[in-house]
Structures
1.
Amino acid sequence: MKYKIGLLILFILLSIFVFFNPKNAMDLEIAKFFYSIRNDFLTGFFKFITTMGYIPGYIFALVVLTIIFIRKKNYLKIILPYLALGISVLLNNVVKMIISRDRPNPLYWLMDEDSKSFPSGHTMNITCFCGMLMYLIYISNLKYKKTYMALLSVFIVLVGISRMYIGVHYFTDIIGGLLFGSLVALVSINVYEWGLKHGKKKCKEN
């Protein structure tokens, strides 16, 4: 509980800061850094990463999850990350409308976007989704759990960096996405575990 409360408090404080300081010096300086390191290789790499942090990546994950869990006929574990993802997308859109922060200068964009900036949808959604995947890996009997979880963690970070490199998000957008995405994942995990416990209890009573 304390982790969820901590994440919520940090996100609220960051949201207040961003609301009253949409173009703060820290964000602008970090943005300048990412613009300054652009080259053909990094541009291609981060465009690929940011694309995989959206629909193509989720489709790939769906295929992998289906292969892993279909043999055990545990269909809930296939759809669980997508249920959490749906909640994340909905909440992200709500907060974007409330904060209504404009994105960085379009002159620096390497890809087009048409929504508001805070929090980063890509970062929040992939954090929530991969967080659920890490949970499923943790409770599974798969080998090399730590390796898979580490790779997912690295991917989350790369997606966040890609959004700044491409020029469509500020640093605080990314941190907001990480905080809120982690919070949604933790709450989703708690609800899932409560459901399992409640279901087992009812089965014993019957």
Note: The chain has a mean pLDDT of 89.
2.
Amino acid sequence: MTIKPLSDKVVTRMTQAEETTKSGIILTAAAKEKPSVAEVVAVGPGAYDKNGNLIPMTVKVGDKVLVAKYSGTEVKLDGEDYSIVSLADILAIVE
């Protein structure tokens, strides 16, 4: 089964949370922050402006993106965790 987003929605898969700090301290599950870097899995066609012109998407499948905290809708499909976010909730492309 696959997820095909509509309008300006983007399906992302969150990257793994850091297990240790840069100084080598191992983090417990309670101390880990929700990761904000995600991989784009699927992209909708884009939204239409009030004149009916299609606004193209600025991200593509495979991009690593920085997502706003607490944004989107979490979905579990075939044992994988995904998040569906609006293009406006994507803050930057990570290069």
Note: The CA atoms of residues 25 and 62 lie 31 Å apart.
3.
Amino acid sequence: MSVLFAIILFSLLIFVHELGHFVAAKLSGVQVNEFSMFMGPLLWSKQVGETTYSLRLIPIGGFCAMEGEDGGSDNPRSFNKAAWWKRLIILVAGAAVNFVMGVLLMVLIYLPAQQEIAPVISSFEPFCTINGPEGLQVGDRIVELDGERIYVQSDFSMLLQFNPGNTHDLVVERDGKKVTLPNFHMEKHTVTDEDGVTRQLYGMNFTIEELNLSGRLRYAWNQSMDTVRLVRLSLQMLVRGQAGLKDMSGPVGIVQQMSVVADSSPTKLDALMNLLYFGGFIAINLAVMNLLPIPALDGGRVVCLLLTTAVEAVTKKKIDPKYEGYLHSAGMIVLLAFMALLMFKDIFVLFKG
């Protein structure tokens, strides 16, 4: 069931993404030649007005083919003839719809929540050494750690893992005012619980807060923004060499992870909610990743659009769109090769395990 859910989820994400481009193009007066679900050989198609609606064989991707999108066209309703701001709206519409879908899924997940663990210190353990007049105090709300905002309480431990060490820059809210604790020394202590499990703890406990409707909506939004930030942190780790191909997953790996999470859930309802969380997480990830300034992605097209618009405004000369088409075609080849590499890596790991 989790595999079926994953297939439906990916199909839905693709559909709403391309639907965003499609609706924005139609509202902007740009001619859409074909609106397709999936890629590869044609399975079914229907011509409605100027647009062909199609279903293709390979259940990966999809496209909204606009007139003049990747080359010159004399059609007055082609993409390259539209005003630059209309083209910008069309390009970002897909990612925008994915982001909205992700936020709505987060709202759906957290709407039943009655409580949250807030990043507000409720007490300290006897062994704790980071409390006191010059340190942290009961009632402090932790709002920043090493320059990163604390959206939800779990951010605190996550960001500490991203920034190993005993010295951190903290910002807390105390009695309605922000207090900065630069180069704050935070020392872990080894603690063995009653079950004999040994853990490293700082010794602070956090507050459980009741949630009303506005609190649940705020919590869902904070989880969404936290997901956006996690994409950025992951990319930073890749650039710095702290993560590599082995830490990345394609559709096959994601489906496997979803299956594991669903199977380990105590009830069917928990499994459904966990899968929906995965859906919201992936939708927001897709929105952010799609806007990266990489050729073939919408973000790369946005960068090219802004650059060519600026150059044409200065030089008063039209840049031949075929050159941008070459760039995005090359980018698409590299992107597809990378996706194939991820897929084979995921399949190898799956069978090896």
Note: The chain has eight helices and ten strands.
4.
Amino acid sequence: MSVLITGITGRIGANLAATLVDRGHAVRGLVWPRDPRIDKLNGLDVELVHGSLTNPRDVLAAVNGAEAVYHLGAAFQGGGPFSETDYFDINVRGTFNMLEAARAQDRPPRLVYAGTDAIYEKYVAGGLTEPIREDRTPRRCRGWYALSKSLGEELCTGYWHSYELSTVVLRFCMVFGAGEILDFPQFRLSGLKGRSEFTETRQSRERLVVLRDEKGRPYKKHVADVRDIVQGCRLAMDAKDVSGRTIQLAGPAPFSWDEAVPHLSERLGIPYVETRLTGNPTFYEFDLSRARKLLGFKPEYDIRRMIDDALAFRRGGDIGVLPTD
């Protein structure tokens, strides 16, 4: 199958490309002409088409002949800096250009759109009491990144209802690439600089930290290893009865700080402390029942395996994941 991936140089796009090539698909990537990360694709049998999501001609040239499209490219919070106009032009108008190019094909491809959990209000007083569900948890966008991605979702769903263009929205949680979980700032005291709970003396020593809320509950978060997200993307290509649907992806289960940090401490040989924080805690998880039912999604990488594999990768081991940079 001929597959187009926008955002092919990102942590998800590059690993998805490698997986699809291994499975015998012909992969094409739309890349910004000055993208410095294309070196990570060296040795991978992919075709690179240079162009911009904001240029309809570039997009049409990239989409032509594709049997499936993964629209992962976007202006995102960790990049930039991006203006409100950039977010609109790249994430909203760029998605419109992708949909129009797909609709213009004699045999329109399925388009899989990368959504984001940034559209949810996850950090609330007391934490979330119910798992986040695509069909129940309201979208409450804050900032132009979340708003632009939410508008992209609406466009995709609208093109299914208006033109029967097969679109699938996959909402991604926070995704970690090779080795990245070891540097997650909220596992380290140094990542909490500026909070009144900590003095410079305590922060001067390397320590991990188990975060708890005002009631003493350990923080809880639901993230994913890039390999699980790639699995979900791959399954969405051929799944039946998913057109027009929105599907949340995440790892096999949420983790709590009192589970992850002691394990990380043991593996790194760095001691940890425990502390309570004031304000809205990190305390949420996702209901993945729709992904399991519609896609046959079976995430494998829990927090312990992510940590162990990240250490193996840092030590030169091959865990089947491309470097992030």
Note: Confidence is low (pLDDT under 50) at residues 199-203.
